[in-house]
Amino acid sequence: MDKSEHGSIASIQGDCLKKLDEIKEKSIQSIIIDPPYNISKDEWDKWESTEDYTEWLVSIIEKLEIVLKDNGSFFLFHNDMEQISEIMMKIKARTSFKFRQMITWNKRFEGSKKKGYLDGYIVKNDLHNWNKMAEYILFYTFENSWKLKEERTKRNINSLTISKEILSRTGGITGWYSNIETGKNMPTRGTIVPIEKHLGITYDDIVPKYINQKTDHSVWNYDMAPRCKVHITPKPVDLLENILKHVTEEGDIVLDCFAGSGSLGQACKNLNRRCILIEKEEKYHEYINESLELVEQRECGWFLEIGGDDSETEDIENENDVILFQNEEEEDESGDEGGDEGGDEGGDEDGEKEPVATFG
């Protein structure tokens, strides 16, 4: 696959509750979403109750779980801690996602372009609480250690047989393997060798992809993104690039089903990742297509590979039911998201439907 194809972006308009069903299981390397926060920022950011909101959001997260690879990662932006707590409890109860970290995006810091402006909010005499100048990013992966015991049992291999492959300095048996099988530790590139020898399970089968950039802890300092002409809560492209650098490589497929202004698409374009952007609102969808220079096309190999069963897709009924792609042929020459929902696709060969797509 050449570099230009690595940068492909598929832009889909529609409701992600429906569109996620059309994506192949375990086909996405990383999912990064910035859903509505239910804090009344706009008309799309209001629910009757917190229960209604969290049920809606977690029902989408359950679908995201299906399309994420076993060694993939899931990131969720939010800023309301009470709602975050309810979302986290439901994710824990209803999915297999394993909570890894809460990243704090700090917006007021030395060197920030906005520091002087934000300082004005903390010097007011009538404050009765600390002013919140941060958002939060929940980081999840899968816990895959269960595969080890399942495969070992199937092959009728005693755990001691594997443990004996790596002995202590004095020649004794240690608990290195049992700690991995029970999920206490993850395998290293060294300890996976005897595991693969006996069980046929590889490093990527167990360990979520993480490329340590050796730059960050769990508090990140990033300026707020400028507001775009159609969306009030875009996310900074450089922050999204930092996530991508840690959990993806060139050519990996990334998904955002609340694409908003398309900031993740721009980050993926900059770093040669492939990206699926699903957006419900037409004005945001059109802005994404314009800003990322996407045009209509009828085929895209990598997207067809991860699409759902063509026989189950619906006919394209109007101009809004369209999938758009970045131009893979011209990209070598050439080179904000947060808070709503979306998506769409189709198919046609030998009588089957074919997605309407665009390269730009």
Tally of strands: 10
Report the total helices: 15
Give the uncertain stretches in residue-range form. Answer: 1-6, 308-322, 327-360
The CATH superfamily title of the largest domain:
Vaccinia Virus protein VP39
Largest β-sheet summary: 10 strands, mixed
* Rg, nearest Å: 22 Å
Strand arrangement within the widest β-sheet reads 6-4-5-3-2-7-8-1-10-9
Shape: globular
The CATH level-2 architecture of the largest domain is identified as 3-Layer(aba) Sandwich
Predict the CATH topology of the largest domain: Rossmann fold
CATH class of the largest domain: Alpha Beta
**Total domains:** 2
Query: Strand pairing plus helix content: what structural class?
Result: alpha/beta
Strand content: 15-25%
Which tags fit this structure?
360 residues; 10-stranded mixed β-sheet; alpha/beta; single chain; 2 domains; Rossmann fold
What does this structure look like?
The chain has 360 residues and is an alpha/beta fold. It has 2 domains: 24-144 and 210-279, Vaccinia Virus protein VP39 (Rossmann fold); 146-206. It is 33% helix and 16% strand. It has 15 helices and 10 strands. The protein has helices at 3-6, 16-19, 50-67, 81-94, 115-119, 146-155, 159-163, 176-181, 192-199, 203-206, 237-247, 263-271, 282-291, 301-306, 331-334; strands at 9-13, 28-33, 68-78, 97-106, 134-142, 219-221, 253-256, 274-279, 295-296, 323-325. The protein has a 10-stranded mixed sheet with strand order 6-4-5-3-2-7-8-1-10-9, with helices on both faces. Strand 7, helix 12 (263-271) and strand 8 (274-279) form a beta-alpha-beta unit. Mean pLDDT is 85; it is low at 1-6, 308-322 and 327-360.
